[in-house]
Amino acid sequence: MKSFFNPEDRILSARSLDGITWFREKGVRIESSQNNPISTAFYCYVHQPTELNGSFEMFYHSARQIKNSWKTKILRTVSLDGLVWDQESLTVLDDTASSQPLTQIRAPYLWPIENGWRLYFSAKDTTRITNIYSARSENRIDWSIEPGTRIEPEMFPAKESDDDRVIGVSDTSITRLSDGRLRMYFSSFRGADWKQNICSAVSQDGLNWSIEEGIRINFGPHGCRYVANNPSVIQINGKWNMYFRGSNNMPIKDKIFHATSSDGLTWEVEGIALAPNSNCRKERHEIAHPFVFQTSEGFYRMYYTGCCGTILNSSSYAWYENFYRELGIDIIYD
Question: Is the pTM of this model over 0.70?
Answer without folding.
Answer: yes
